Amino acid sequence: MSQPVHSVLSPHRQRMALIIASIVAQFALYVVVLVQFTQYFVYFYWICVGVSLAVSLFIIANTIKLATFYRREEIAIMKMCGATNGFIRWPFVVEGMILGLTGALVAFFIQWGLYEAVSRLILQTNGLSLITVLSYASMAGNIVLVFCGVGLVIGVGGSVVAIRKFLQV
What we know:
Shape: elongated
Number of helices: 4
Number of strands: 0
Distance between the termini: 98 Å
Radius of gyration: 30 Å
Low-confidence stretches: none
Order of helices and strands: HHHH
Mean pLDDT: 86
Largest sheet: none
Strand content: under 5%
């Protein structure tokens, strides 16, 4: 028959090992919950991006619709004088581009200000000393290019949708 194996740890050390094991298990549970929360946050983020894109397209399309309605007499005169469809449509596309770029630049500078405020708070808080904060200026070039590109696409997309729907040339 096999003999019971005696522990090499004293009873005090066995209790300490059990306490440490339970603490590690508790932290593992926190990590699992944090990962699940992060996944839900990513889903929520993409839903917010989709809603923001739809709202932006709607606003730009309505702005172009109002511009075409306001200039309907000028458009009618241009048609009577023989203006091509592109000659009539391009000013509205350019207006959409300008609206998209303006919105992108405003959003970029708001994000810059918020990033600087949050990074100052992180640096002032002693408990968050493990976090390394990058300067926004080091990333600003790439970020502004992305913002301007997305702003142009949204602006042109909104104006094209509005022109197709409301400007019959």
